[in-house]
Structure prediction request, 203 residues.
Amino acid sequence: MTKQSVYTLPKLPYGYKDLEPYISETVLRLHHDKHHQGYVDGANAVLESLQQAREKKAGVDMTAALKALSFHVGGHVLHSLFWENLAPKGKSRATPGGELEKALEKEFGGFGRFKEEFSAAKGVEGSGWVALSYCRLTRRPLIMQIEKHNVDIYPAFAILLVLDLWEHAYYLDYQNKKGDFVEAFWNIVDWDAVEQRFRAAAA
Prediction:
């Protein structure tokens, strides 16, 4: 059996200090270099164990393996999207503009209402994410609360914007004030990147 491709940690599209004061260099280094790398390593370890079992024609606990693979791949994909939808101070703007803002106004009654509903989703149970997604069947933008990295995801929905609400994303900067982190997030959203995802999903 030939060696297969594996997951790799993506480089950040900005410097470690570029998201300050909203996300500190310390938190960004820990989050990207340690936590995200851990999900990459975890996914690759599961794939390697499956490949070895296939080569040896050995039995596998598929329930455990697929659960672990879903968790780690989900963590890798969501973190990769998260880095891409953040922008250094000065590149972000207050509202998305363009076709995305029109879609948000149609669905939520205004960008302000969208922000309220998205921010309120910080109450996701346990560790998880808030995401703006797009349903291609109804052509509507919808908010998701994702537990862990892989629970409560709407299957096949395009993810446009994500916010990591695991404690490792904010605790060293904001301690128990998760709401302050959510408010700070709006200062560093790269709406151009989110608009590009929206256009691709809606095409």
User: Anything to note?
Assistant: The domain at 25-84 is CATH 1.10.287.990 (Helix Hairpins). The radius of gyration is 18 Å. The first strand starts at residue 128 and ends at 135. The longest helix spans residues 25-56.
